């Protein structure tokens, strides 16, 4: 029997999420925070580029690797265990954030007990980076935590000849530093072939009248700002040191995505426009290359100006997400955002003038936030007229400046969720906060002009992609009708 097709059918998913080999040596498992639980708030599912890079590097070294992406497939625990049993990989790499750690440990125990050929179970991602000691210990099934950008390190781990020469696990370890890769142009492109599933998508309105097939790309890593709520849970890269790829290298990858059949691209950069000259150069390079791949990105409101936004629009940018978080200058300070409310006003005005759609990200429940602060946020939301909003709750994930070890005495961080107000440090009762979140959405959806504008620009894309759009509508409706 063809082993690949067996594995694919076992997890019940399409082949683009699962690439297998007859003698797989490394299996990556991406475990979402909501596995086996229902999440009422619709969430984007972006392809795990760090795993894609690691797989590309492993393949360069002749190491066979594959991915079980539970976030994209929603495979059941039984299906994932069966797929692991079938593959019997030598190294299992679990990719999990703090809320997914109980599931990661349970899967690691299963591997240790049932798959004797697996010599190492490695944990990567935000939790391994910031709280490695919490998962290592005499009874732990985790052998190694890699902190930070693990792509190169995992190749060392998988290919080290002495790593487990006896066939038994060596002492538990944690990589000493939080890794931040420098040579970004030296990396191969991530294995995008793995990510062709239509389940990878973002909910941004784009107006793009094609079948949606989202490709993802990372042109820079790091962010020098220090917003108190920011943590590797919410980030796509590590560290404050901003590192960039050359424009030629980025354009080559965009072309690769286009050639693979992706019809939209999303830049996962944490702060896409920090260096404005670089983005001007990138936009020129995209135009010169004659690419026809519409794209979206996200940034801070104080990192744009009108000429830049116009250049981005000309180069195929359809939608820009920006972190507004709050309309209260007091809360901006509290969050250590470092921007002005006027930056928000200007950025959204310029984006509209440039013809870009916008997504505004808001946070409710920040430390000390009052109803008066929320009213100011409400005002700014109405004023800037974004094309879409996302409203999350302030959550001091481990790794953020707001995370305080004393919090763990009263809150289990594995229960944290920025879509459920689990930790409430504001002056507003939790049930009121939850209601405010829904009111933000309802107010936004019912405001004059939104339905008309959305229907005008998105009806055809939604019709062409009805199979993807209707589930999103259903999820959104069930979230808004939640009591
Ligand atoms: S929230 Fe955004 S701008 Fe703030 S530190 Fe994190 S990545 Fe940087």
What does it look like?
- Helix content is 38%, strand content 14%.
- It contains 17 helices and 14 strands.
- The chain has helices at 3-11, 49-60, 70-73, 77-87, 101-114, 126-130, 151-159, 247-259, 276-289, 306-314, 329-334, 341-354, 371-384, 407-410, 430-446, 450-464, 466-480, and strands spanning 26-31, 65-69, 91-96, 120-124, 144-145, 173-174, 214-217, 220-221, 243-244, 264-267, 295-299, 317-325, 357-364, 388-393.
- The strands form three sheets. The chain has a six-stranded parallel sheet with strand order 2-1-3-4-5-6, with helices on both faces.
- The protein starts with a helix and ends with a helix.
- Iron/sulfur cluster (SF4) is lined by residues 223, 225-227, 230, 235, 270-271, 300, 323.
CATH architecture of the largest domain: Alpha-Beta Horseshoe
- Portion in beta strands: 5-15%
Sheet with most strands: strand arrangement: 2-1-3-4-5-6
CATH fold annotation of the largest domain: pyruvate-formate lyase- activating enzyme
Unreliable spans = 1-24, 162-169
Biggest sheet layout = 6 strands, parallel
CATH first level of the largest domain: Alpha Beta
The computed structural class is alpha/beta
Rg for CA atoms: 22 Å
Helix proportion: 25-40%
Number of helices: 17
Tally of domains: 2
Superfamily (CATH H level) name of the largest domain:
tm_1862 like domain
Instruction: Name every ligand kind in the structure.
Output: iron/sulfur cluster
pLDDT averaged residue by residue: 88
Number of strands: 14
């Amino acid at each position: 029997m063809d082993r690949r097709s067996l594995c694919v059918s076992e997890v019940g998913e399409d082949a683009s999420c699962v690439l297998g080999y007859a003698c797989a040596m490394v299996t990556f498992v991406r475990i979402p925070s909501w596995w086996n639980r229902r999440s009422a708030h619709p969430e984007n599912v972006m392809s795990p580029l760090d795993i894609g890079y690691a797989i590309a590097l492993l393949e360069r070294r002749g190491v066979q690797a594959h991915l079980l992406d539970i976030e994209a497939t929603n495979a059941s625990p039984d299906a994932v265990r069966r797929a692991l049993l079938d593959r019997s990989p030598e190294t299992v790499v679990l990719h999990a954030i703090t809320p997914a750690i109980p599931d990661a440990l349970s899967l690691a125990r299963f591997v240790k007990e049932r798959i004797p050929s697996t010599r190492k179970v490695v944990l990567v991602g935000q939790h391994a980076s910031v709280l490695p000691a919490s998962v290592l210990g005499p009874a732990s099934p985790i052998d190694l935590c890699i902190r930070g950008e693990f792509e190169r390190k995992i190749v060392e781990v998988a290919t080290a000849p002495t790593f487990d020469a006896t066939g038994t696990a060596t002492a538990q370890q944690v990589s000493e530093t939080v890794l931040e890769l420098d040579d970004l142009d030296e990396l191969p492109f991530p294995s995008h072939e793995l990510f062709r599933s239509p389940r990878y998508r973002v909910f941004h309105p784009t107006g793009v009248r094609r079948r949606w097939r989202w490709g993802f790309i990372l042109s820079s890593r790091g962010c020098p700002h220090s917003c108190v709520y920011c943590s590797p849970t919410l980030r796509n890269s590590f560290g404050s040191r901003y590192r960039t790829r050359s424009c030629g290298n980025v354009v080559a990858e965009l072309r690769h995505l286009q050639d693979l059949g992706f019809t939209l691209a999303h830049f996962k950069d944490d702060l896409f426009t920090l260096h404005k000259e670089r983005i001007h150069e990138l936009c020129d390079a995209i135009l010169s290359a004659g690419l026809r791949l519409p794209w979206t990105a996200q940034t801070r409101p104080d990192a744009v100006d009108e000429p830049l936004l116009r250049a981005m629009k000309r180069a195929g940018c359809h939608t820009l997400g920006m972190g507004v978080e709050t309309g209260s200058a007091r809360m901006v300070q509290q969050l250590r955002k470092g921007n002005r409310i006027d930056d928000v006003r200007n950025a959204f005005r310029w984006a509209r003038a440039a013809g870009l759609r916008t997504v505004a990200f808001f946070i409710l429940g920040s430390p000390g936030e009052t109803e008066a602060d929320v009213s100011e946020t409400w005002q700014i939301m109405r004023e800037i007229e974004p094309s879409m909003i996302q409203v999350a709750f302030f959550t001091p994930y481990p790794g953020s400046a707001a995370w305080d070890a004393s919090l763990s005495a009263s809150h289990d961080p594995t229960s944290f969720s920025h879509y459920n107000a689990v930790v409430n440090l504001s002056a507003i009762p939790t049930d009121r906060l939850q209601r405010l979140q829904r009111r933000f959405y309802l107010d936004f959806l019912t405001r004059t002009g939104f339905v008309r504008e959305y229907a005008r620009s998105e009806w055809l894309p939604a019709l062409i992609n009805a199979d993807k759009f209707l589930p999103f509508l259903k999820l959104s409706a069930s979230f808004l009708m939640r009591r």
